[in-house]
């Protein structure tokens, strides 16, 4: 018998190996000889015959029996992704597996650590614990309620819950529980504690989602920040948990998982929730993945990679912030986890809810055309809370002091006097984006990229934000020796410095990727803000999402104009989403919020819609424009990306590829090859070729034949890949 095996290699083929150990299910992991080494493979099918010559066929070294096989529905989803994204099946499968399952060593499966009360522990009356033993009481109650809790679930109760657990164990109150002793999930008490009374819009949304359980359907839950989307998710999830089924919740970034995770855990203390993202240690990620696959996990909360987690009892998928670009993987398998989630829901015949305040225009278009059900939450959920007032500061007429206008400074002073917090938003870290010589026009360019080196004054370094290249800030112009180099433009560090100068009594905190670089630094920074130890936060988009600061009443946006004259047709969409999001930080609780945006284009229609918090007006406007010029969602696109040491080789390859494509009998438009927007990154020149069609079927039929033709070409000096539904150009 022969096994057809997928390997993690960039070749569009499967590999046959001999096997005489009996039936093997597809999805099994095997160890096979490959070249001079051993490789892990995944069995895709088996067969009585092979096209490989008998003397060349090798035998499977080992079948890994200790881990469960990849289930058929996930294999089917991966096969779809491989076809749709024109990516080798082997790499597609391995992209979906936790690292621990890609290794050639047999696995020592991490022991799941669950704890329960001992007989002695069950006799303890929480009322008899001392009044200040808050955490111990909480732990005792949680263990009573749930029967058993994992170490993670205990840790989520409180930062000191692990210590309390140790004490319980010392007292003989708690003991380890075998995972196999877990009661069937459906039988466990999963009812939620008191839930808020839903407003009408929320109620309608929840009712619609409940009614749709059991069949495929896509809903777009559209509502501004604070309109109560999460509450809708929670109540939808509750219905699923009560049926004993599983929910998959996708979030764009790891940064956002802890908050949502806490809310889910607080609402469903007895449910088993696991997270899946790339920041987890290998063993933990594997354990969570296996919990999902075994059905032990009720809720899987994760970033894009979790869309491939096996879930035998999946009944609902939720994608929060569905418009977020980080759902799209930008290398290897260039998939969109949001789109794959929709396909997965369809294959599994379960509903999917896409939530956003500013949906992707593709999604909005589908909701308008009736393919998706639109569920709107038009108002903020907390009574009295209203959307922040948005005003513009016209910088064409004002003198800026270090990038800051007098009206913005005055507003900041006002909040400071009232003891309220402000956020100054600027989407560029570092001190200044360019260092320049006024005499010979030398600028701090990166020698490996087509970008500039950003000055980080604190560290006295110039840094490339694209390739990571770093060097000292030169004391004088490297070209002419002029000692007076000029810093142009503004980054977070410079704004921070200017604020320190203009508002000397304010406590200022900078939150960007530099200040949050150390692992776990971000939660500490956020805590400072929550604890009111900060008056003014200077932050990048790292802060724009999800965080809810009760005392924050003012958001100042320092420089947002770049996107208005960008060549990227999605720049306006991104800017609108970003500004809506950052505006959502202001005035969430009792205090009303205000947003001040410095711009030279205050009459731009984007700003007019923003001021009215009118996403539909903005979206319809953009869609009309896109329809007129035939951009997505009114056409389907793919990019052929090429990378080479010299731009000319990349372009030459693309010209040949275009010729090959034109020779094919397929009705798609093929554009001219062009250098990428960032043509050079880390010493590699990048260019691409756009193909598009008004018909997705035509585009995909073309891509399939074209790719085969490209793979048959000789010559390997150019690395190329296809990017289907590209977001970056
Ligand atoms: P979103 O996810 O859209 O930002 P949330 O679900 O986080 O909105 O709700 C925003 C705030 O309003 C939260 O503090 C939440 O607890 C509260 N909230 C949500 N729904 C209701 C409701 N029906 N009644 C009262 N408060 C609510
Ligand atoms: Zn010079
Ligand atoms: Zn660089």
Radius of gyration: 28 Å
Biggest pleated sheet? 7 strands, parallel
Order the strands across the largest sheet as they lie in space: 12-13-11-14-15-10-16
Global shape? globular
Which ligands are bound? adenosine-5'-diphosphate, zinc ion
Mean pLDDT: 90
The oligomeric state is single chain
Describe the structure.
- It is globular, with a radius of gyration of 28 Å.
- The relative contact order is 0.08.
- The model is unreliable at 180-189 (pLDDT under 50).
- It folds into six domains: 2-102, 3-Layer(aba) Sandwich (GIY-YIG endonuclease); 111-180, Arc Repressor Mutant, subunit A; 200-377, Rossmann fold; 389-432 and 489-624, P-loop containing nucleotide triphosphate hydrolases (Rossmann fold, 3-Layer(aba) Sandwich), CATH 3.40.50.300; 433-486, no CATH class; 636-724, Alpha-Beta Plaits (2-Layer Sandwich), CATH 3.30.70.360.
- A seven-stranded parallel beta sheet has the order 12-13-11-14-15-10-16, with helices on both faces. Strands 5-2-1-4-3-6 form a six-stranded mixed beta sheet.
- The protein is an alpha/beta fold and 729 residues long.
- The protein is built from 20 helices and 32 strands.
- The longest helix is centred in the last third of the chain and has 17 residues, at 647-663.
- The structure holds adenosine-5'-diphosphate and zinc ion (2 copies).
- Adenosine-5'-diphosphate binds next to helix 8.
Quick rundown:
With 729 residues, this protein is α/β, with parallel strands linked by helices. It contains 20 helices and 32 strands. The two termini are 47 Å apart.
């Amino acid at each position: 018998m022969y096994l057809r095996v997928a390997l993690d290699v960039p070749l569009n083929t499967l590999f046959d190996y001999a096997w005489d150990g009996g039936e093997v299910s597809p999805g099994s992991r095997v160890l096979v000889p490959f070249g001079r080494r051993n490789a892990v493979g995944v069995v895709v099918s088996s067969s009585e015959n092979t096209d490989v010559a008998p003397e060349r066929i090798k035998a499977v070294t080992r079948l890994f029996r200790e881990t469960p096989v990849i289930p058929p529905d996930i294999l089917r989803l991966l096969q779809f992704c491989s076809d749709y994204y024109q990516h080798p099946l082997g790499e597609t499968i391995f992209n979906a597996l936790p690292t621990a399952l890609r290794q050639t060593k047999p696995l020592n499966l991490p022991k799941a650590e669950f704890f329960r009360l001992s007989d002695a522990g069950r006799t303890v009356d929480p009322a008899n614990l001392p009044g200040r033993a808050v955490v111990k009481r909480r732990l005792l109650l949680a263990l009573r309620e749930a029967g058993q809790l994992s170490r993670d679930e205990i840790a989520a109760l409180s930062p000191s819950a692990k210590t309390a657990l140790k004490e319980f164990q010392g007292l003989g109150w708690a003991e380890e529980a075998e995972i196999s002793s877990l009661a069937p999930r459906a039988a466990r008490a999963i009812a939620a504690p008191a839930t808020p009374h839903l407003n009408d819009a929320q109620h309608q949304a929840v009712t619609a989602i409940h009614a749709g359980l059991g069949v495929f359907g896509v809903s777009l839950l559209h509502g501004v920040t604070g309109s109560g989307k999460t509450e809708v998710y929670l109540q939808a999830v509750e219905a699923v948990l009560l049926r004993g089924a599983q929910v998959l919740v996708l979030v764009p970034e790891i940064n956002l998982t802890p908050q949502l995770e806490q809310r889910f855990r607080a609402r469903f203390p007895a449910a088993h929730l696991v997270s899946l993202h790339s920041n987890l240690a290998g063993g933990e990620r594997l354990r969570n993945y296996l919990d999902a696959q075994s059905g032990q996990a009720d809720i899987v909360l994760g970033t894009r990679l979790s869309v491939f987690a096996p879930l035998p009892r999946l009944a609902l998928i939720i994608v929060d912030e569905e418009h977020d670009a980080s759902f799209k993987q930008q290398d290897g398998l260039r998939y969109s986890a949001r789109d794959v989630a929709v396909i997965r829901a369809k294959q599994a015949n379960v509903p999917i809810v896409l939530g956003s305040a500013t949906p992707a225009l593709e999604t909005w278009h589908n909701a308008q055309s009736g393919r998706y059900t639109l569920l709107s939450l038009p108002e903020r959920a907390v009574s009295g809370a209203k959307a922040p007032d948005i005003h513009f500061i016209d910088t064409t007429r004002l003198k800026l002091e270090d990038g800051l206008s007098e009206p913005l400074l005055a507003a900041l002073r006002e909040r400071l006097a009232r003891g309220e917090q402000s956020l100054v938003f600027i989407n560029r870290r570092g001190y200044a984006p360019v260092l320049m010589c006024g005499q010979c026009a030398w600028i701090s360019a990166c020698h490996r990229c087509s970008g500039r080196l950003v000055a980080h004054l604190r560290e006295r370094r110039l840094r490339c934000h694209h390739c990571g290249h770093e060097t000292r800030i030169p004391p004088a112009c490297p070209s002419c020796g002029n000692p007076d180099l000029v810093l142009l433009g503004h980054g977070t560090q410079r704004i921070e410095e200017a604020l320190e100068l203009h508002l000397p009594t304010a406590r200022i905190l900078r939150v960007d990727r530099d200040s949050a670089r150390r692992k776990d630094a971000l939660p500490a920074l956020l805590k400072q803000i929550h604890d009111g130890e900060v008056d003014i936060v200077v932050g990048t988009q790292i802060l724009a999402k999800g965080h809810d600061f009760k005392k924050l009443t003012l958001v100042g946006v320092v420089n947002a104009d770049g996107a208005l004259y960008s060549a990227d047709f999605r720049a306006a969409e991104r800017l609108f989403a970003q500004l809506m999001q950052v505006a959502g930080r202001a005035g969430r609780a009792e205090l009303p919020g205000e947003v001040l945006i410095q711009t030279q284009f205050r009459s731009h229609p984007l700003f007019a819609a923003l001021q009215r918090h009118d996403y539909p007006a903005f979206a319809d406007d953009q869609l009309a424009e896109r329809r007129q010029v035939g951009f997505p969602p009114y056409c389907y696109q793919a990019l052929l990306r090429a990378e080479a040491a010299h731009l000319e080789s990349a372009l030459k390859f693309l010209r040949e590829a275009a010729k090959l494509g034109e020779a094919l009998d397929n009705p798609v438009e093929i554009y001219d090859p062009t250098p990428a927007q960032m043509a050079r990154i880390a010493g590699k020149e990048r260019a691409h070729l756009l193909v598009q069609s008004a018909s997705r079927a035509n585009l995909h039929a073309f891509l399939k034949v074209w790719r085969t033709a490209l793979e048959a070409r000789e010559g390997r000096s150019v690395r190329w890949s296809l990017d289907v539904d590209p977001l970056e150009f």
